[in-house]
Design goal:
20% helix, alpha+beta, 26% strand
């Protein structure tokens, strides 16, 4: 299996190219891969918490599903070990955007089986979440005594993401 290309190849937030065709069968991207992130809510979903700590993106960017999953695992580990079940962690973005690449063959004899840019729509290699500037990526609902632990967990999660981020603490009015 080929190596993953670096995040800089896909992190620009441009208009997604969608195939426009007269034939319905050719109008969608076939073979969308499964998302690596499976759980979006963790902790106690039933309780109302007094504070909400959010992680916001500072730039418009695409975040791959593997990056979101590693951020989720890192922050949930900190939260569950320090707060038990006294938190609600929620990931708000979903990786719906399909990433494609048109691999170019290199080496001897590559010209015999290479199509070049003739049919360059590309094969699906993953999925990404499209995030706008100042959009909330994830948040943690905690009581007042868990704010510092929630900040620490989201800071750890933000370091796994390919963008600059900011944390924001908000008191929830009930």
């Amino acid at each position: 299996m080929a190596k993953l290309r670096p995040a800089r190849c896909y992190n620009k937030l441009e208009r997604p190219y969608t195939r426009q065709s007269r034939y319905k069968k050719k109008g969608f991207v076939p073979g969308a891969p499964h998302s690596k992130i499976t759980i979006y809510h963790m902790g106690d979903r039933t309780r109302e918490f007094s504070h909400r700590v959010g992680l916001f993106s500072k730039d418009p960017i695409q975040i791959r599903d593997a990056s979101l999953e590693s951020a989720r695992v890192a922050s949930n580990r900190v939260l569950s070990s320090n707060l038990g079940k006294a938190y609600h962690f929620h990931i708000k973005v979903h990786p719906h955007h399909i990433l494609r690449e048109n691999p170019i063959a290199k080496g001897a004899g590559a010209d015999r089986f290479q199509k070049g840019m003739k049919q360059a729509f590309g094969k699906t290699i993953g999925s990404a979440a499209r995030v706008k500037k100042d959009q909330e990526i994830m948040y943690v609902g905690v009581d007042e005594n868990g704010i510092e632990k929630a900040k620490m967990a989201l800071d750890k999660a933000g370091k796994k993401l390919p963008c600059k981020f900011k944390l924001q603490v908000k008191k929830v009015s009930t």
